[in-house]
Design a protein that fits this description.
- The protein has one domain: TATA-Binding Protein.
- Helices cover about 25% and strands about 30% of the residues.
- It is built from five helices and nine strands.
- The strands form two sheets. Strands 1, 3, 4, 5, 6, 7 and 8 form a seven-stranded mixed sheet that branches.
- A hairpin with a 5-residue loop joins β6 and β7.
């Protein structure tokens, strides 16, 4: 996957890759390429894709997170005092900004929405980076996963294997991430990190 030297380079924010646009090392070109993938996924029939472009509101994220779901996978869990709680089952794709690689898995997301104004007033969601249990794709999402993998392939992203990602990181380093403590780093922490 990546050598120790390459993992250290990723931690330091260096762009790696031999395919366009990563070979240009130009952040704007890479961002435009990821946006192209986003628009491609949104053209998949019956699939909605939402993206987190702004580093989760603060700091720096080495990846862009997509949340993809079908409208029928959203259900109202509860409604009271003019607020609906909506649960959505879907798939997360994390696209690395520093190398042409991605990871994919499942998540349940919750939103609280004011019925009268349709304004989102709260929510909760997970991340692929907090546990390997999310990398498993259920039968329900098998077709969606195939479509997402095809889109990644068209844009020349390699889907990384869970077994490799969840190995302890053998490089002694400090990663600017909120997900794990230094003595618990995994290989995926060198590639997908968020510094808040």
């Amino acid at each position: 996957m990546f050598s120790k030297e390459q993992l250290q380079a990723l931690i330091e924010g260096e762009i790696l890759g031999e395919t366009y646009p990563y070979d240009t090392k130009n952040e704007q070109e890479i961002e435009a390429h990821i946006r192209g993938l986003f628009y491609r996924i949104n053209r998949i029939p019956h699939l909605v894709c939402e993206a987190e472009w702004n580093h989760f509101g603060s700091g720096y994220a080495s990846f862009v997170e997509f949340f993809c779901y079908r409208k029928e996978d959203s259900t109202v869990v509860e409604e009271k005092y003019g607020v609906q709680e909506v649960k959505t089952n879907g798939m997360i794709i994390d696209i690395c900004r520093l190398a042409p690689v991605a990871i994919i898995g499942e998540d349940d997301r919750y939103k609280k929405i004011k019925v009268e104004t349709n304004e989102e007033v709260g929510g909760a969601y997970g991340t692929l980076l907090d546990g390997t249990n999310r990398f498993v794709c259920s039968e329900k999402f098998q077709r969606t996963e195939e479509q997402l993998k095809q889109s990644l392939k068209e844009f020349q992203y390699e889907l990384l294997e869970t077994e490799e990602l969840t190995q302890p990181l053998s490089v002694q380093t400090k990663i600017p991430t909120i997900y794990r403590k230094p003595n618990q780093y995994l290989v995926m922490d060198a590639i997908f990190y968020w510094e808040d």
